[in-house]
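User: Hi! I'm a student and our assignment asks us to look at how structure tokens line up with a sequence. Could you show me two examples?

Assistant: Happy to help. In each example below, the sequence comes first and the structure tokens follow. Example one:
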Amino acid sequence: MENRAYALITGVFLLGIAAAIVIWAQWLSGDRHERAPYRVVATQPVSGLNVQATVRYRGMSVGRVTAIALDPGDRRRILIDIEVDKEIPITRGTYAQLGMEGITGVAYVHLLDDGKDDKALPEGETLGMKPSFMDTLSDSAEDLARDSRVLVANLNKVLDEENRASIKRTLASLERVAKNLDASSERAAKLLDDDNRKLVRQSLQRLNETAATLPELVRETHLLAQDARALVAQVGGLSADAQGTTASLREGTLPQVNALADSVDRGAQRIGRLATELSAKPDALLWGRGAPMPGPGEPGFK
């Protein structure tokens, strides 16, 4: 009997010690902060995020992840339940991002605040998750890779055998044009020696002199046309007088009409010669009349 009582007391004592150790361990590991529940909704992958993962607020550890599940109403959304210390100011401007613990690949929920709405967010409300820098960089890299593949495919289509041969011929033509330009530049440099530059200068001077005489030639032509119009008017007036005074026309007016007709004829001949010369040598307006061809017995006659 005594042995059984001793064994019972010993067992109870050991159980009490074990229970005390368990209670003490729980007290040491227990979280004594009061926390508020929130839900984070993510539309992008949450690779590396697990239950009991850390929740950080601007870098500080403020809570943990309690559950991760797909949204039954929309399979594209991921619901992440978190608990955050109540003293953390969660506002309507607070949003979540997925962070990484160094190079370990372990993810955590990072809470940030854009400061646009300082009104407190009630417990149990939903927070949105924005793409992190790495997510944005990854999406940009994927878009860049896709665009690169499309560009390479289009280049392969454009640069087929026929187009490559055409580009080769074009480059050869450009090379020949460049060589011809170099040769032309060299010939132009040789042509523009001192004598040729002097000749060009003299030609320009003569051109300026001819241009200076053009207004005078135009003025003379205008005066000649005015004289012709005046003569025609006089002839018209004389014709009217001739219808009324036939006798005076026979005696005195007719010789005047003949003189006027001769003057008109000479003016018309001058205009005709001028038009013939300009038609035969239009450059005479710029360079003037050249020296006449030498006649028999004159120097230079052939």
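Example two works the same way, sequence first and then tokens:
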Amino acid sequence: MQKRRTRWVIAAVGAVVLTVSVGLASVAFASPGSGPIVGSVIATGSMRTGMGLAVHPGTNTVVAQYTFGPHSSTGWHSHPGKTLVVVQSGTFTVYHDNCHAMTYGPGQSFVELPSSIHVGRNETGSDVQLGVVYFDVPIGGAFRIDQPQPAGCDVA
């Protein structure tokens, strides 16, 4: 039962994080996003230690859900802590600062590390829905850090 609850919490936090990220993606960035992106925070809260996840005092876990319209982009960014992303529907492509792309489909998930500078894109003509959980977000701080477009990578 505890394992199932922990999985649910992780999934819920992921959904909230994704929603918030997409919502912020419509705001000005060092590398601006593009296209229609709608996001909403589902929940924000601190976690107590001992839940099988490494959490740090003074940080929140944020759960968000996002809908990326056709041909939309997050703009280049990073996160203050690890980020768990789950693709609910559609196809989502992530480019890292070396311009290497990874594409994810429905039911697939991935983790972005705090050191990862990346851009997420919906390169299709259909909506993409993501659930995101942001870990180690400073209380009162942002879960997204705008980054400039890497030199030699023409992906925006």
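Here is something you could point out in your write-up. DSSP finds one helix and ten strands in the chain.
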